[in-house]
Amino acid sequence: MLIPILHRKRKAAEAAARALKDDVGGAIEQTRRIYGTRLLIRGLLWASVYLLSRGLLELTIPSTPLRVVMALLPTPFFIYYLWTWMKGVSEMDELQRRIELEALGFAFPAAVVFLMTIGLLDLAVTLNPDDWSLHHVWLMLPLVSYVGLFRAKRRYE
Amino acid sequence: MKNRLKVLRAERDWSQQDLADQLSVSRQTINAIETEKYDPSLPLALKMGRLFDQSVEEIFTLEEAARRRAN
Asked: Which of B38, B39, B48, B51 has the most A C-beta neighbours within 10 Å, making it the best mutation to test the interface with A?
């Protein structure tokens, strides 16, 4: 008589514990999803302001101070994006943080090698500034960073 | 470094996600530890020991020590 009641109570307690665990897991997953979305939105915001700034600078505006303001316009948005990323890294668990570190460990030397090579080639043959000036070349650096992230992630999968 | 994490988890009928939630890490971290691609930090190893009620040495073994024991 007593045993089925105890058994039922234990089952109910196990179910409640499992539900609580699912809630915690769900909350972690939700945070991850929100964090990813937040980073994406801020990245898109920065990219939009950058493209706007590029577009405006292509126009023939004679005022130098105005052109400088336009050139500096994307910087706070990029800092905001980087701040979101750094905040996200500080909230990551130890393996995810290691992946980010290994990605940077690849990306930084790769970026140095890339810029050094471009610089030397520019001295050797004078590269076309329409293709190889700083405002084109910097776009390669985030790409190098993503390659680093891809390599590091694959290593631990 | 060898570990018995998968066995201990299976004994308790926990999924990788269950264990990850209890240790406040990602499922990817548990998977990387179980497949011996990643060695956890000391605080995480101690947390695991406490969760499974075992010492860290009972869960994790240096490969040389495991080999010595097998010979």
From this structure: B38
